[in-house]
Amino acid sequence: MNKRASWIFRSSAGRIILAVMVLSLMATACAPAAAPATSAPPAAATAPASTSPATIKVGAVIPLTGRYAAGGEQVKNGYELAVDAINKAGGVAVGGTKIPLQLITLDDESDPTKTVQQLETLNSNDQVVAYLGGFGSDLHAAAAGIAEKNKIPYLGVAFALQKVHDQGFKYLFSPFPKSPALATATFDMLDSLSPKPSKIVVFAEKTDWGDELNKLWTAEANKRGYTIETQQYAPGSKDFSQIVQAAKDAGDDVVLALPNPPDGLAIAKQMKELDYNPKAAVFIRAADGLSWSDNLKQDGNFFMNMPGWNPAMKFPGVADLVQAHQAKYGKAAQATTGPAYAAVQILADAITRAGSLDHDKIRDAIAATDMMTVEGPVKFNPDGTGQVITVINQWQDGKQVLVWPADQAVGKIAYPATPWAQR
What is the pLDDT, as a whole number, of residue 28? Predict the structure, then answer.
């Protein structure tokens, strides 16, 4: 027995302490086992909550200012409305737990250099699970390489440049018609017109996309027996009179172009000033937004565009999108809003199927997409291009009317276009 134990045993105080200790031990041994507390679940039960984030962060770099601002607004609205709808339903299911989406939007000012900078910011500061793109092929082309470097899935709409997809990017996906589909649809539509036009001019923007689509349009025209010529211009030009006058002198029936919005407005105005009256005009990109009609009024009628969507399309969820857009923004949903909304639908579905917020698992789930969206059924090809419907809208009485393809059309193509002097 050590000295401390000997003291406890000999002293009166020690004997009392020893007695209490013995009685305490006896009481503990005889007491029934305590029931587990109901207010605190076992550690294993709380583990999912502690590992699940409060939100799923998704980064969007969009041109909210600059030359693409009008299109960027449409894309932004589509993303926001889709996120609102998903969160209203509880969020995205990940492993049995629903987590709300958090959309982080940054402005690249329509500048590809700033697109890159903003994507890097979203990766380093916000650690987003996926990127959503903006508006304009040059901005998406700059973004695709950054998404690949950071190994973050990238969903982009409002860009048709096929060339980006030919570079073997693994993380790039675009549920949007590409240049080959646009060229084919253009001439399928022209073939349906009566009397069929014969002479076509391409106002070709001196950019990668301008060159790509010009070559595809030319190949289709030659294959189908049209006469076609090209008039080139530099984006940002102020004077388009030379190319317009050349097309007028040649008697070209149809104008095909893909100008940015400021250039497109300027070309249309100079076509009127020079009294050049083609029977049909397809202005991809420039004629997508409400700013086209707001600026040109009746002069904006008869122009056609190919923005990937129309609010009259006959697919589930379109009516709800249209109603929500009017309620939130006080105006009608526009052409590129639908594909943007669909991009978020695709991402949410992929995250759920992946059951994870891991970039590679989400990427693989996007690649395996086979679902219905507000722009119709969507699948992806191995190069990330989307198997989607290509639509053509035409401005009629200040509104975009869906005129192609026939199974989706709600109106007929107004052809030939009414001359400027009679509008």
Answer: 36
Beta partners for residue 230, in sequence order: 202
Radius of gyration in angstroms for the set of CA atoms belonging to the chain, rounded to a whole number: 31
Say what the pLDDT of residue 342 is. 98
CA gap 46, 50 in Å, rounded: 6
Whole-angstrom distance, CA of residue 191 vs CA of residue 212: 22
Distance between CA 275 and CA 331 in Å, rounded? 33
Run of H or E residues at 12: helix 12-30
Cα(42)–Cα(27) distance, integer angstroms: 27
pLDDT averaged over every residue in the chain: 90
- 43 domain-assigned: no
Whether this model's pTM surpasses 0.85: no
Q: List the one residue out of 157, 232, 225, 152 whose CA is nearest residue 191.
A: 225
Whether 169 and 184 map to the same domain: the answer is no
Give the whole-angstrom CA distance, residue 69 versus residue 71. Answer: 5
DSSP string, 126-181: I--SEEE--SSHHHHHHHHHHHHHHT--EE--S---SGGGGG--SSEEB-S--HHH
* 188 three-state secondary structure: helix
Residues 189 and 269 both lie in one domain: yes
d(CA 295, CA 413): 22
Closest CA to 260 of 77, 69, 400: 69
- Residue 151 within any structural domain of the chain: yes
Co-location of 98 and 74 in the same domain: yes
Question: 173 and 322, same structural domain?
Answer: yes
Residues in the chain predicted with pLDDT less than 70, given as ranges, are 1-50
* Integer Cα distance of 51 and 95 in angstroms: 11
Per-residue tokens: 133: 């793109």
> How many domains does the chain fold into?
2
The reported pLDDT for the residue numbered 17 is 33
pLDDT for the residue 289: 86
DSSP letter assigned to residue 297: G
272 and 414 inside one domain: yes
- On whether both 293 and 414 belong to a single domain, the answer is yes
- For 114, the domain range is 50-177+313-387
